[in-house]
Amino acid sequence: IENTLPLDQLRDSTHLEDAELDVREECGRHGSVLGVCIPTTPPSGASKSRVYVKFAAALQAEAAMRALDGRLFDDNAVRAQCVSAEAYDAAIAGGW
Questions:
Q1: Is 85 exposed, middle or buried (0-12, 13-18, 19+ CB in 10 A)?
Q2: How many other C-beta atoms are found inside a 10 Å radius of the C-beta of residue 57?
Q3: pLDDT exceeding 90 applies to what percent of the chain?
Q4: Torsion angle defined by CA atoms of residues 73, 22, 27 and 7, in that order, rounded to the nearest 10 degrees
Q5: What are the DSSP E strand ranges found in 1-96?
Q6: pTM for the whole thing?
């Protein structure tokens, strides 16, 4: 999920915790959330934050993607897309 919070808020643990809880709650409406990762070190030139959500099943991820894509999240229009398990693992390891 892209653009859930401004990039400058990635350094604030309170904003990160709130965003993680909100994302977990919203995504949990569509399936079993196994994990949420918010990378805190964007690459140079990045303009939007990212949140990676791991679901128990691909159909659950697809349902969440359809429901969240284009919605407002703290006044930000978010973009949701499905990514591979490898992309999620890379984010957990500190990647973007």
A1: exposed
A2: 11
A3: 89
A4: 50
A5: 33-37, 52-55, 72-73, 76-77
A6: 0.93
